[in-house]
Amino acid sequence: MKTGLLLNIALALLMARLKQSVVAAAGVTFGIAMFIALISFMTGLNKMLDSLIINRTPHIRLYNAVAPSKTQPVDRAGEFAGFRNFIQSVKPKDEGKRLYNASRIIEAIKADGRVIDVAPKIGTTVFFNSGTIQLSGMIDGVDVHLEQKLFHLNDNIIQGTISDLGTVNNSIIIGKGLADKLIVKPGDVVQVTTPDGDIATLKIVGIVQFGIAEVDDVQSFTSIQTAQKLQGKPAGYITDIQVKLKDITLAPVVAKEYARLFDMDATDVQTANAQFETGTTVRNTIAYSVSVTLLVVAGFGIYNILNMLIYEKMDAIAILKATGFSGNDVKAIFIQLSMVLGVVGGIVGVLLGYGLSLIISHIPFETSALPTIKTYPVNFGVTYYLIGIGFALITTYLAGLFPARKAAKVDPVVIIRGK
Amino acid sequence: METPVLQAININKYFLDPVRFRVLKDISFSIGRGSFVSITGKSGCGKSTLLYILSTMDTDYEGELFLDNEALQEKDNAALALVRNQKIGFVFQFHYLIEEFNVLKNVMLPAMKLGKFSNEMIEQKAMQHLKTLGIYDQALKNASQLSGGQKQRVAIARALINDPLIIMGDEPTGNLDKKNSDIVFGIFKEICLENKQTTLVVTHDPDFAKRADRIIQMEDGKILL
Known about the structure:
- Chain A is α+β, with helices and mostly antiparallel strands.
- Chain A contains 16 helices and 10 strands.
- By secondary structure, chain B is an alpha/beta fold.
């Protein structure tokens, strides 16, 4: 009941300066709303940008890299042990890109609890024949079902679907840039020449677009079986194993582990795409610092108004103290006053922030990178709303604390004798 | 002799600004229960200073002070606030009503702070006091809508709400005309007689001072007997 009384007094003092109070609360509202709108929008964009690359990239990729033999003949010569050897005469051996025992490895990785799923891939370079010109390109032979499950390839296929690769024999989905150059559309056939000189005819069932010209100009997809046939390889032929983990942060550790275990090369997503991680961090930092600045400014507004209020209400403070309210009671009154502004401003701010986010999420946004996205991406994460409210409370508490401490120290004798 | 309500022993007080100056010099006296005492003297003789020390609001003094047999000089600010709340009622020259509240709420505030009774009981009690003071009909008005004399009566009602042992007044009639002064004086007198509450009033109004049971005359920081 006592806290109720203090709150009651705080509210009465607030009412005395209703206009300024509203302005002060509006400062908080604005700060919180901008924080939420900004951070939702930023993280929404971040997620989209990440998904452009990170979602399309396996967390771990296992492959055979072409590398020189690690032990050169000179290393084996006893008399040069301890010398710095720089003669590298043995060239890389042609082992091919084939992964041996791939199906067993895939099964072993699938059994690992940290793994979502594993998808095999065959990567090969080809030439697309268009009249007399040959355009170089890449064909990825993929497992239709797993590719969609792990990498959402359908999001980027603007004509046709990935499942057509499984149902139509000798089919191919080619990049938008490539299709434009070859002047082909789904239903047409395209002739390709493999590195070994074989020529094959493939039927186009779809067009894919990543929004990155260099990729769209060369990339195409086909089913694993077609890729194997194309290269004249047996059914077990696979060049890459792509792994998706439940926790992406584990990728570097697990990659090393697999490289040792299966004796092949492994790259993790963090190493392969370091720049995206950096971009995300920078954008988040910008969003947070702008919002925090807004809230701090709002906090100063509250601080100002409370200071003014204290000077105006000196008499009231003096008489409260004279009639038995302690310094702590007076302090509590002014902190509560500030917190009321914070709570009211914060709640309105959250609603306004949600409204702004909704508006942003309805603004048309056409990007060639993500054909399925039509409006700006906004992340409606509850966390940001909680952070917003939390920050409103902390700011207003601090903004109230200093004036409140001043009010607590008011000496009633000085005020009363001064009259 | 019965135990005094208020006892001061060798109170000394210094002002440090602009130079060290001894305002109160070895003040000792005691006040018995239910008496009406006035402190009087010329401007600057230290009578208000003494009152603020007695009221526990000024803690910067030397000497010993007992209220209801409790030593006050050892208590911290929070404890003193409680003492003021429970045992002392104040009436100042200026009314110090809080404009944001109505008359009734102003009177109720100290009791709500004490929290000894429910709000309904406090309201009843406040109305009772307002009735005795003849401003019952103003209870729901805002403090700023009242006349000077009425405001002062509200301030008295506020001082009485917690049934304090002692009521202290600092020139309570200083801003009032003769008629209102008489009314206020009458009220104080009645409080003393009927409720057996002690009243201690600082005034430089000789008429007012003369009518008290006991007059403490001060000059240059000393008590003249």
